[in-house]
């Protein structure tokens, strides 16, 4: 795995305002939530070099991250074997039908548009681990990022985790913590703490030597559409 860490922040952008965003992505990046001291932690997911992010978590967390990427002006392509989970998210978030493209199965690499500093591209890979490995073989272009959703941390997901620049991890069960210890480079302390995370918490890995624990802190607008964070495991 390249390197792994944690990030957070608060969003106050109204959905109607998202469609009009035309400024370059801010240097602080995408805000995941807040740490124990209330400080926002940014995930620098968009930049001149492509970035791979693995999310070990549920659809609630994945949809929240996608909403916040749309708030940054990104265009999103979702490859999913369960497209119903993604219906209407782009329209709700931006008021436009063209900011989120939904593909049943794995998107053809040629159908993923090029990104720019004004409108970066996020490719969400929400498919089985074997299909996700195929997606990972496609090189990322500048201003493209790939978010691979790992619903259950099974041994087959190890390749996804090792390929990630960053990993965002929600609460793990005991089996998942054991499976993920090596590819995520977890300490013994982390293995225990990852099993005790609150439902609205996650950990960012890849921004330094320490795992960064944070709360998603969804806004009232995000709660309206996504609801409260559900228990993952």
Question: Short description, anyone?
Answer:
With 233 residues, the chain is α/β, with parallel strands linked by helices. It has eight helices and ten strands.
Q: Could you please describe the fold and organization of this structure?
A:
By secondary structure, the protein is α/β, with parallel strands linked by helices. The chain has a single domain, classed as P-loop containing nucleotide triphosphate hydrolases (Rossmann fold, 3-Layer(aba) Sandwich). It is 24% helix and 22% strand. Strands 5-4-6-7-3-8-9-10 form an eight-stranded mixed beta sheet, sandwiched between helices. The N terminus is likely disordered.
CATH superfamily: P-loop containing nucleotide triphosphate hydrolases
Global Rg? 16 Å
The helix/strand series, from N terminus to C terminus, equals HEEEHEHEEHEHEHHEEH
CATH architecture: 3-Layer(aba) Sandwich
Low-confidence stretches: 1-23
pLDDT averaged residue by residue? 87
Morphology call: globular
How many separate helices? 8
The total domain count is 1
Beta-strand residue fraction: 15-25%
**CATH domain topology:** Rossmann fold
Span of the ends, CA to CA: 25 Å
Helix content: 10-25%
**Number of DSSP strands?**
10
CATH class: Alpha Beta
Spatial order of strands in the largest sheet: 5-4-6-7-3-8-9-10
For this structure, the quaternary state is: single chain
User: By helix and strand content, what is the structural category?
Assistant: alpha/beta
Largest beta sheet, briefly? 8 strands, mixed
Q: Which structural traits does this protein have?
A:
disordered N terminus; globular; 8 helices; 233 residues; alpha/beta; Rossmann fold
